[in-house]
Amino acid sequence: MSSVKIGIIGGTGLDDPDILAKREEKKVTTPFGDPSDSLVTGEISGTPCVLLARHGRKHTISPSNVNYRANIWALKEEGCTHVLVTTACGSLREEIKPGDLVILDQFIDRTIKRENSFYDGTTNCPVAGICHLQMDLPFCEKTRQILISVCAELGLSHHTKGTTITIEGPRFSTKAESLLFRQWGGHIVNMTTVPEACLAKEAGLCYASIALPTDYDCWRDTGEPVNVALVMKTLEENGEKAKNLLLKAVPAIAKEEWTQTLKDNQVIEPHSIRTLIIVVLEAEIRILAIVRKPQLAYL
């Protein structure tokens, strides 16, 4: 049986370290700066876990200012093989009700200000090259299926698929934007999936997201528009559901065999990196092809 260590990134109101036994706090830094808060290491049902509050434990970091690269790098360096995250969101569909859970399978990126790759090409970057990452399936399907199965076991109202529109924030959507997102096929709208999912994939981690709808965003003509008070009220009600899901999902993940999955994850990243040497060689090949092309006409 392959050993796993599970990182848990708690979103708004869902970063309670009490879910862990044998808790220890660990302050770390990374080549990309400090993560959002200290890491809290511990166990769930004997499985090693690392908890990180995405917005800081006092919720002082806006979605745009989260150091996503440092967060994922810190979990990777701590030995995590998986990352389970929670994310508050607004529903774009009548059938996805506040209080439901959505196990995300796709995203559409509407962010504009965030560092979305470890491979940024700067001189002080700890990894070389540019990474053109395959993202057709942004979430770990095997981990997703475990979360879906546990939701069913617990009798939680849930949706097995969902496309999130990740907006920059911290403001909520306009009504025109919310209606547009529905036309695009979005199921929910949130502020944190991107670049978190992209970075986790670059790092070779099994990443899955539990979305927690708190409201209907603002696309409907009836009902209360989204506001902070409404979000926090529903999050308090949803917190226990998410906690119970994580407590049961972690040991379920640990029981599975992950050797091949983790091996496959590690292959994706190297095959996506284009280093300067490769780019130069490709350029030289193209030049040679152009130079030799006229000669071929006489053969």
Automatic annotation (TrEMBL):
<dbReference type="InterPro" id="IPR000845">
    <property type="entry name" value="Nucleoside_phosphorylase_d"/>
</dbReference>
<comment type="subunit">
    <text>Homotrimer.</text>
</comment>
<keyword id="KW-0808">Transferase</keyword>
<feature type="binding site">
    <location>
        <begin position="54"/>
        <end position="55"/>
    </location>
    <ligand>
        <name>phosphate</name>
    </ligand>
</feature>
<feature type="site" description="Important for substrate specificity">
    <location>
        <position position="228"/>
    </location>
</feature>
<dbReference type="InterPro" id="IPR035994">
    <property type="entry name" value="Nucleoside_phosphorylase_sf"/>
</dbReference>
<keyword id="KW-0539">Nucleus</keyword>
<feature type="binding site">
    <location>
        <position position="12"/>
    </location>
    <ligand>
        <name>phosphate</name>
    </ligand>
</feature>
<keyword id="KW-0660">Purine salvage</keyword>
<dbReference type="GO" id="GO:0006166">
    <property type="term" value="P:purine ribonucleoside salvage"/>
</dbReference>
<feature type="binding site">
    <location>
        <position position="192"/>
    </location>
    <ligand>
        <name>phosphate</name>
    </ligand>
</feature>
<comment type="pathway">
    <text>Amino-acid biosynthesis; L-methionine biosynthesis via salvage pathway; S-methyl-5-thio-alpha-D-ribose 1-phosphate from S-methyl-5'-thioadenosine (phosphorylase route): step 1/1.</text>
</comment>
<feature type="domain" description="Nucleoside phosphorylase">
    <location>
        <begin position="5"/>
        <end position="250"/>
    </location>
</feature>
<dbReference type="GO" id="GO:0017061">
    <property type="term" value="F:S-methyl-5-thioadenosine phosphorylase activity"/>
</dbReference>
<keyword id="KW-0328">Glycosyltransferase</keyword>
<comment type="function">
    <text>Catalyzes the reversible phosphorylation of S-methyl-5'-thioadenosine (MTA) to adenine and 5-methylthioribose-1-phosphate. Involved in the breakdown of MTA, a major by-product of polyamine biosynthesis. Responsible for the first step in the methionine salvage pathway after MTA has been generated from S-adenosylmethionine. Has broad substrate specificity with 6-aminopurine nucleosides as preferred substrates.</text>
</comment>
<comment type="similarity">
    <text>Belongs to the PNP/MTAP phosphorylase family. MTAP subfamily.</text>
</comment>
<feature type="binding site">
    <location>
        <position position="191"/>
    </location>
    <ligand>
        <name>substrate</name>
    </ligand>
</feature>
<dbReference type="GO" id="GO:0005829">
    <property type="term" value="C:cytosol"/>
</dbReference>
<dbReference type="InterPro" id="IPR010044">
    <property type="entry name" value="MTAP"/>
</dbReference>
<dbReference type="GO" id="GO:0019509">
    <property type="term" value="P:L-methionine salvage from methylthioadenosine"/>
</dbReference>
<feature type="binding site">
    <location>
        <begin position="87"/>
        <end position="88"/>
    </location>
    <ligand>
        <name>phosphate</name>
    </ligand>
</feature>
<protein>
    <recommendedName>
        <fullName>S-methyl-5'-thioadenosine phosphorylase</fullName>
        <ecNumber>2.4.2.28</ecNumber>
    </recommendedName>
</protein>
<dbReference type="GO" id="GO:0005634">
    <property type="term" value="C:nucleus"/>
</dbReference>
<dbReference type="InterPro" id="IPR018099">
    <property type="entry name" value="Purine_phosphorylase-2_CS"/>
</dbReference>
<keyword id="KW-0963">Cytoplasm</keyword>
<feature type="site" description="Important for substrate specificity">
    <location>
        <position position="173"/>
    </location>
</feature>
<feature type="binding site">
    <location>
        <begin position="215"/>
        <end position="217"/>
    </location>
    <ligand>
        <name>substrate</name>
    </ligand>
</feature>
<dbReference type="Pfam" id="PF01048">
    <property type="entry name" value="PNP_UDP_1"/>
</dbReference>
